């Protein structure tokens, strides 16, 4: 039996809690979350055994999973560096950025505490424990960044997550942040900007956004995600996102110029290239 502390019982933390509870219902699950609704729901579902304060629960845990916004993960790592923890405790996180988390984790690593960076590449724009599920992370890619974890602690975490049949992928923090900037963070900026730009352009149009078909909704679904979580992501991966936005602007300007110049060949080639790439993702 393992005592697991999950700090942040939102979409991701609650889904991980469901997986670990499924792996062994005898695991002692302690939850920490200022959102009472998310905590109470997990208690009612009998997935979490009890709710506690972060400081108190941290001292009892064998495994600590930090699943709040990245800004909260970083401040909780700093807090953990000043708490008397169990000697073999493993601390891991689910944050969408890794370089700043791993930098903060140096305080734990220097003290010989086992820390493993983590980031599940599954989720949605929804928040809170009611939106989580046992299957949310099933067969997804889950990035791991080596910290100070022992092989035994790594095996322990993978064993706890076994019901999710995860595709574990080891990566360096910088490579991770560049990759997810392109795959997730810049797309979030683009979807958000598209929504705000369309709303501004159509503000005096009586029909406006209400006429939007599937294309607009599919392209912008992620803009409905939690602003607090995404602000923390932007602040913690600013350089890679900045670079990604520049590259996006270059491509956007090329297409804008082709449209402006009635350059049919370039427009067609641009769409053909994207079509082939996008179709290959679903094969
Ligand atoms: N939404 C997604 O699809 C994915 C999110 N992530 C990352 O996982 C983390 C959690 O994201 P979600 O579960 O989606 O967000 P969420 O908003 O559903 O859950 C975050 C939870 O953290 C709680 N929280 C805030 N301050 C706290 C504190 N001081 N102590 C304990 N809990 C606190 C909130 O009340 C909330 O319940 C974030 O770092 C995010 O970047 C990673 C992969 C996918
Ligand atoms: O909503 C979606 O489809 C997502 O892509 C969710 C998501 C959000 C943040 C991450 O770090 C990883 C995945």
UniProtKB/TrEMBL annotation:
Keyword Oxidoreductase: yes
GO-annotated biological processes: tyrosine biosynthetic process
Catalytic activity, EC: 1.3.1.12
Signal peptide interval: none
Entry GO MF terms: NAD+ binding; prephenate dehydrogenase (NAD+) activity; prephenate dehydrogenase (NADP+) activity
Keyword Zinc-finger: no
InterPro entries, per database record: 6-PGluconate_DH-like_C_sf, NAD(P)-bd_dom_sf, PDH_C, PDH_N, Preph/Arog_dehydrog, Prephen_DH
EC top class named in words: oxidoreductase
Domain Prephenate/arogenate dehydrogenase, first and last residues per copy: 1-283
Pathway the protein acts in: Amino-acid biosynthesis; L-tyrosine biosynthesis; (4-hydroxyphenyl)pyruvate from prephenate (NAD(+) route): step 1/1
PANTHER family attached to this UniProt entry: PREPHENATE DEHYDROGENASE, PREPHENATE DEHYDROGENASE [NADP(+)]
Family under the similarity heading: Belongs to the prephenate/arogenate dehydrogenase family.
Protein name (Swiss-Prot/TrEMBL): Prephenate dehydrogenase
Organism of derivation: Lentilactobacillus diolivorans DSM 14421
